Every structure is written in structure tokens, then in C-alpha cells.
């Protein structure tokens, strides 16, 4: 049977990769030949090779909004990436490109447009990232997580669908989660997720507050690669992990409250699971401000509490946790009224329908 061919792209952080993985897992492999183009050393390479998808690494530059000598070098890196991506695409001859953004996607999309290959992109955040701002002019169809995002794109080719949620995230086991962590059944579980790269400021605030938190909560701290604190390895009720993959659905099923950055994919997953959130968004000095807008949108809808990093102290962290836990049912009621649709199935259907 002749298979249709699709190339996925996106990378830089897990947030640009996990939605692609969710879509890939829902596609019929008997009908689709699936490939992935990412950066040579990005997190996407490890995540994609784990699911046995052919992976092609290309040169990519970082898209900056400020003046830096590295920008000059990156122009050449992007040009090199365009040539490499074009060579790969000419060989593969895919029927469609699907992009989740991140700087590595830009050379792939430019190359695809030059070869007249149709392009789908998905924007997770309230405002589009620079990669998708560039890519939108080449896109055949654009999908967004937030209704508010549609105004930034051409209306006739933009569709609001929500965020594609990994199916396995929704099927965790409360019992397996507590067994894996070796936690008791009577104290609430607090999970801290600082993103795939971790967060130095959040990690420091959590660790300096442990004396106030332990006793109230059992704590799962996903602190990012290289961020384990060996001095805290044997504290009862406190478990550190660089990154969790297979056990994450079970851990989240057992979680009562979560501290998270404001990345769209993560907060939409917590919304689907109805886990009350404290969102500590990246500051405007660290990002383009997208996480601040994501956090505000969720707080306005009653799904979460925002704690600005500039205001993050031991006392503000502990008091915010106490407040959200005291209003846990109110947050969960608001989450249950969310109109978050089945974005994952919509995307799979749109891919199949287009071809």
C-alpha cells in the first residue's frame, strides 16, 4: 500500500516537541510514513528518537529580538539550515509539513515553501512566537490554542482548536503514582515543574522553603537536567527528578496542586487534568512575555493563580500554595467548565482530510 509522507518539525524546548509526539502517536502508521527535522543537538532529537521516528538534524540559529553579534553568525546558520532542509525534503518528497514552532522550524518551512510543499503550523501561546510570525506567510493552514491568538494571523486560514493533549497524560493512575513515589495516602502531593530545562529561580525558592512545606505537602520536584541537589536526596516526602517520562501520567494523577512555568502546552495539560495551578511565568527579561499573557488568561478564567517571579519569595510561595489549596474545589469547578476541545483529534483529522 502506498503511504503518504509527512515531516514534522519544531524544537528548542519540550513544549515545541511534545505536541508533535502526541499527534504522531495518533496517526495510522500503515497509511503514513513519518519523519522529523530538528536541530542537531536540541532536546527534540532525544525525544523523537525514543519513539523510533527517522530524525534529521540541521543547522539552526537562535531568533533574537535584541542586538547581538551572534545574530550575524545565526544568519549564516539559518541559511545553512535552509539548504540542508531543502536537500532532505527533496529526497523525502513529503506530502505535508507540520510545524510546532521554535527557531529550528524556520529553515524547514522556508525550504518547504520553495518546493511548494503544503505547510500546517500550530501556535500554542496567546501571542505568536517569532518563528511562527515568520512562518505564517508561508503556511497553508494555521491552528491556535487560544481564541485571542487568531487576530494575529490571516483569518481565512486560521482555526482555533485548543492545545493537543497527549492521550497518555489523561490515563494516569493515582495508586501507581503514589506507589512509584512511595508517598502516603493522607497528605496532598505538590508537583513542581520548571519546564524541560528547569528553572533556577523556582528551584531555589522551593528548596529554601522546604522546612515550611514538608509536613503540609509531599513534594515531587522536576528540577531539570543537571539540577539535582545531592544534599537533599534523603529528605522524607521530597523527591527530585531531572525529568520524568513514562511515570509522569501517574504522578500527575496523584498530584493535588502544581507549580509550573507558563508554557501553553503544560498549562493546558493541567487544565485537562483539573489540577489547580500556581503559574510562575518567565519574565519579560527572559522571554517575549508570552508566558505572562498565558498566565493572565488562565487566572482570569479562574484556573490558576499567578505569582510573578519578581515577587517570588519563601513567604509568597508558601502563602500562594496555602491559598490555592484552600480554594481547590473552586478552581476545579472553573476548570470543569472549560471549553477545551479535542485539539489532538482535530489536528489528526485535518491532516488526513487535507490529503
TrEMBL record:
Gene3D superfamilies: Glycogen Phosphorylase B. It is an enzyme of class 2 (transferase). Keywords: Cell cycle, Cell division, Cell membrane, Cell shape, Cell wall biogenesis/degradation, Glycosyltransferase, Membrane, Peptidoglycan synthesis, Transferase. It is a peripheral membrane protein. One of its GO terms (molecular function) is undecaprenyldiphospho-muramoylpentapeptide beta-N-acetylglucosaminyltransferase activity. It catalyses: di-trans,octa-cis-undecaprenyl diphospho-N-acetyl-alpha-D-muramoyl-L-alanyl-D-glutamyl-meso-2,6-diaminopimeloyl-D-alanyl-D-alanine + UDP-N-acetyl-alpha-D-glucosamine = di-trans,octa-cis-undecaprenyl diphospho-[N-acetyl-alpha-D-glucosaminyl-(1->4)]-N-acetyl-alpha-D-muramoyl-L-alanyl-D-glutamyl-meso-2,6-diaminopimeloyl-D-alanyl-D-alanine + UDP + H(+). UDP-N-acetyl-alpha-D-glucosamine binds at residues 13-15, 166, 196, 291. Residues 6-144 form the Glycosyltransferase family 28 N-terminal domain. Pathway: Cell wall biogenesis; peptidoglycan biosynthesis. One of its GO terms (cellular component) is plasma membrane. It comes from the Bacteria. Its EC number is 2.4.1.227. Residues 190-345 form the Glycosyl transferase family 28 C-terminal domain. InterPro entries: GlcNAc_MurG, Glyco_trans_28_C, GlycoTrans_28_N. It is found in: Cell membrane. One of its GO terms (biological process) is cell division. Cell wall formation. Catalyzes the transfer of a GlcNAc subunit on undecaprenyl-pyrophosphoryl-MurNAc-pentapeptide (lipid intermediate I) to form undecaprenyl-pyrophosphoryl-MurNAc-(pentapeptide)GlcNAc (lipid intermediate II). This is UDP-N-acetylglucosamine--N-acetylmuramyl-(pentapeptide) pyrophosphoryl-undecaprenol N-acetylglucosamine transferase. It comes from Heyndrickxia sporothermodurans.
Amino acid at each position: 500500500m502506498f503511504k503518504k509522507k509527512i515531516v514534522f518539525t519544531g524544537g528548542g524546548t519540550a513544549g515545541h516537541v511534545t505536541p508533535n509526539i502526541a499527534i504522531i502517536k495518533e496517526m495510522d502508521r500503515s497509511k503514513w510514513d513519518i519523519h522529523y527535522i530538528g536541530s542537531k543537538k536540541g532536546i527534540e532529537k532525544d525525544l523523537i528518537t525514543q519513539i523510533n521516528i527517522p530524525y534529521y538534524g540541521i543547522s539552526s540559529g537562535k531568533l533574537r529580538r535584541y542586538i547581538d553579534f551572534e545574530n550575524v553568525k545565526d544568519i549564516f546558520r539559518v541559511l545553512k539550515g535552509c539548504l540542508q532542509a531543502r536537500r532532505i525534503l527533496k529526497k523525502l518528497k513529503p506530502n505535508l509539513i507540520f510545524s510546532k514552532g521554535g527557531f529550528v522550524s524556520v529553515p524547514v518551512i522556508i525550504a518547504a515553501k520553495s518546493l511548494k510543499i503544503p505547510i500546517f503550523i500550530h501556535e500554542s501561546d496567546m501571542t505568536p512566537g517569532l518563528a511562527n510570525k515568520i512562518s505564517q506567510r508561508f503556511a497553508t493552514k494555521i491552528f491556535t490554542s487560544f481564541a485571542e491568538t487568531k487576530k494575529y494571523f490571516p483569518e481565512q486560514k486560521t482555526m482555533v482548536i485548543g492545545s493537543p493533549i497527549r492521550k497518555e497524560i489523561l490515563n494516569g493512575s493515582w495508586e501507581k503514582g503514589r506507589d512509584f513515589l512511595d508517598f502516603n495516602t493522607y497528605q496532598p502531593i505538590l508537583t513542581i515543574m520548571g519546564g524541560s530545562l528547569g528553572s533556577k529561580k523556582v528551584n531555589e525558592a522551593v528548596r529554601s522553603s522546604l522546612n515550611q512545606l514538608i509536613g503540609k505537602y509531599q513534594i515531587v520536584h522536576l528540577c531539570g537536567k543537571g539540577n539535582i541537589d545531592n544534599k537533599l536526596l534523603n529528605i522524607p516526602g521530597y523527591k527530585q527528578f531531572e525529568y520524568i517520562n513514562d511515570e509522569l501520567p501517574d504522578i500527575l494523577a496523584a498530584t493535588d496542586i502544581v507549580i509550573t512555568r507558563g508554557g501553553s502546552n503544560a498549562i493546558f495539560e493541567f487544565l485537562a487534568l483539573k489540577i489547580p495551578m500556581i503559574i510562575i511565568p518567565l519574565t519579560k527579561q527572559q522571554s517575549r512575555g508570552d508566558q505572562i499573557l498565558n498566565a493572565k488568561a488562565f487566572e482570569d478564567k479562574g484556573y490558576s493563580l499567578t505569582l510573578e517571579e519578581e515577587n517570588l519569595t519563601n513567604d509568597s510561595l508558601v502563602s500562594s500554595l496555602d491559598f490555592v489549596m484552600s480554594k481547590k474545589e473552586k478552581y476545579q469547578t472553573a476548570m470543569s467548565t472549560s471549553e477545551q476541545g479535542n485539539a489532538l483529534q482535530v489536528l489528526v483529522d485535518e491532516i488526513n482530510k487535507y490529503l
